[in-house]
Amino acid sequence: MATMRAAVYTTFSGPIIVQEVPKPTAPVGGLLLRVKACGVCRSDYHGWKGLDSDIVTHGLPFTPGHELSGVVVKLGLGTTKFQVGDRVAVPFILSCGSCRQCARNRPTICEAQGQPGFTMPGGFAEFVAVPRADRNVSLMPPKVSFLQAAALGCRLTTAYRAVMQQGRLQSGETVGVFGCGGLGLSAVMIALAAGDNVRVLAVDTSEEACNKALELGAWHAFNAKEGASLAPARVGMTQSEPMPSAVNRAAGRSTRPKRRFASLGRR
């Protein structure tokens, strides 16, 4: 039996150990991926703690990792979109294409979704079997690195849905991003690319995260530890002039009446 190396935990909250495990095969309609990069997400921590029902249902031992990119090494029967050697990015939700939500063009809430690192072994391994490849997997442009592509399938797509599809951010608007980790910083970048004259107010308790938001182009960034009254004063805003839209948790009261608020986080 062919084997590969993978990071595995056998008990929730227990040690994660790199060990030899059976190498998967390319599923029908899918492909076998040689993993080149895989991100680490807070959801991986929740799963490791035993707080994700999909992993509990799958059972242990388990290999996490859902933000992955790599090279196609084998095609499953019926896969037509790709060739061996293709550089691809894998989203963390593999939609079915036939349920009610997919028919409504809402694949991220597919009723029969698969998720590497949750419903199936994930990307902290040398190889991953990826089903439903033609529908879900994407070819990487030559200028995009594996590290960059690994960030696209979860944090950037989640931020895009929050800012553009749910938040409906328009040119000339101001948006507040509360929490500037990987997801929040992705929201900063997407907001700035959304239209002309968009202003982003970034909020975090980490000075390092605030500085990173400024580096990415945020209009202002401030440390939430300063308190609710000092931060708006620093940017010339008043309590009677809240933001038209906000992204992430603990931000609902910061928006104007009848404006938009998108909350992102653990399912």
From TrEMBL:
SMART domains: PKS_ER (SM00829)
Domain of life: Eukaryota
Keyword field: Oxidoreductase
UniProt domain Enoyl reductase (ER): residue ranges: 10-255
Comp. bias intervals (Basic residues): 255-267
Protein name, per record: Enoyl reductase (ER) domain-containing protein
SUPFAM superfamilies, per database record: GroES-like (SSF50129), NAD(P)-binding Rossmann-fold domains (SSF51735)
Positions of the UniProt region annotated as Disordered: 239-267
